[in-house]
Design a protein that fits this description.
Strand content: 5-15%
Number of strands: 2
Structural class: mainly alpha
Distance between the termini: 30 Å
Number of domains: 1
Helix content: over 70%
Order of helices and strands: HHEHHHEH
Largest sheet: 2 strands, antiparallel
Number of helices: 6
Oligomer: single chain
């Protein structure tokens, strides 16, 4: 119940803006054809930006216990390209949103979430979004 209330407040007070920014970057990536893998990551992280409470972004190899193209060195190169073209701008958007949230005492949990999303926006390739319970189980079963 608490995460639902947090997600609704988050969405209304700014989560929708950053989620739409992720989707906009994703659409641009899809239009370029070569950017489809980045576009897919944008839509996953955009959905996460809309309703982040109760979910967590983790590396896919941490979840599945096996490497794939996004978690390999190819994914690392993809994240470097991503960082240079779009990641830094989305991170700046999340940091600016975090600063705006930090101004109010009530907004501190939202600011912390924006900072987590800023970190994720720097290198989203190879990550997926799961519930906090699934992430805990993946980490526990190492």
């Amino acid at each position: 119940m608490l995460k639902t209330i947090g997600n609704v407040i988050w969405f209304v007070l700014g989560g929708v803006v950053m989620g739409l920014m992720w989707w906009l970057v994703g659409l641009i990536a899809f239009i370029s054809i070569i950017g489809i893998p980045w576009g897919r990551a944008c839509f996953v992280m955009g959905n996460f930006s809309f309703f982040p409470f109760g979910h967590e972004a983790i590396a896919r190899n941490e979840l599945t216990k096996q490497e794939d193209i996004g978690t390999s060195s190819v994914g690392m190169v993809g994240n470097i390209v991503w960082f240079l073209l779009a990641g830094i701008w989305l991170a700046i958007g999340h940091v600016c949103s975090a600063v705006a949230c930090f101004v109010t005492i009530i907004g501190i949990p939202f600011a912390i979430q924006h900072l987590k999303l800023a970190y994720i926006s720097l290198a989203p390739i190879g990550k997926t979004v799961v519930t906090k319970e699934q992430a805990a189980m993946a980490r526990y079963s190492r």
